[in-house]
Amino acid sequence: MPHRPVLLKEVIEALDPKPGEFFIDGTAGAYGHAKAIEEKIAAKGRLLAIDWENTGENYADLAEILRNKNLGKADGLLLDLGFSSEQLSNGRGFSFQKDEPLLMTYDSKQKPVKEILRNLSEEWLADTIKNYGEERYAKQIAAAIKEKIRKSGPIETTGQLAEIVKSATPKSYEHGRIHPATRTFQALRIYANHELENLEKALQDLPKILKTGGRVAIVSFHSLEDRIVKNYFRDYAKAGVMKVLTKKPITASAEEVATNPRSRSAKLRVAQLL
Ligand SMILES: C[S@@+](CC[C@H](N)C(=O)[O-])C[C@H]1O[C@@H](n2cnc3c(N)ncnc32)[C@H](O)[C@@H]1O
Prior knowledge:
Elements: H1 8-15, E1 22-25, H2 32-41, E2 46-49, H3 62-68, E3 74-80, H4 113-119, H5 122-133, H6 138-152, H7 158-168, H8 182-193, H9 195-204, H10 206-209, E4 210-220, H11 223-238, E5 242-244, H12 254-259, E6 267-273
Parallel strand pairs: 1-2, 1-3, 3-4
Antiparallel strand pairs: 4-6, 5-6
Helix pairs in contact: 5-6, 5-8, 6-7, 9-11
The protein binds S-adenosylmethionine.
Residues 3, 5, 26-27, 29-33, 50-53, 58-60, 80, 82-84, 106, 198 line the site of S-adenosylmethionine (SAM).
């Protein structure tokens, strides 16, 4: 399925890119938001568009990238977190709907999930699934995974993992609202790619990335990420470093949710460097 940019109008309105400005898209993906930014900053503007999968650059390294490339600070930064719809069929195992190799990493330098499952202890695995997936059956799932590996060797595919998770959880799991493997897959993806650490690093570095008056817009898709963004923005505001432009997170309209289900859990927060 082609990727559709989430909260496109809201992001552009909030970031307010103007002709001649320097913008960064730290998660350029299918270039949906980036294209709209490019149009606004026009011919004289500059856009640095990076993506871990496509350009091999991690947005956590933005401050270093700007320094090494001598680019100066930016007027705006967008982070649209997580993975794109296209990555659900890129063969790297982001989806449990397809039977693919169990990698789940954006770049091949990270340790794939199939190795992580082998190396982590049962307790550590249970904690990871609980903390990053907010999964209440984490203990049972971790036990089933380790038992399977002990008995029949490494878990090689997403399909195998999804089946193990399903068999370790009750039939009535979440009243069928979500597949039993949803939270476990989220947790393992976050762990494998250090997603929360990357986000924290970028948030810490905001004063090194943005000019005075520069705007940052962050779209998150689950509560762990949104909480981190909210807390950083609040602390920056208290310290007089940033002004928060969204008192409450902006969410997708009913129309957008109807046409793009991915937007259902999206939360946009925006702040400005003082
Ligand atoms: C939701 S998609 C972005 C879609 C994009 N805004 C668009 O309109 O097409 C998230 C993207 O972030 C990338 N990504 C995830 N973690 C990253 C990181 N730490 N650094 C850079 N890109 C990352 C993924 O590869 C994915 O393409």
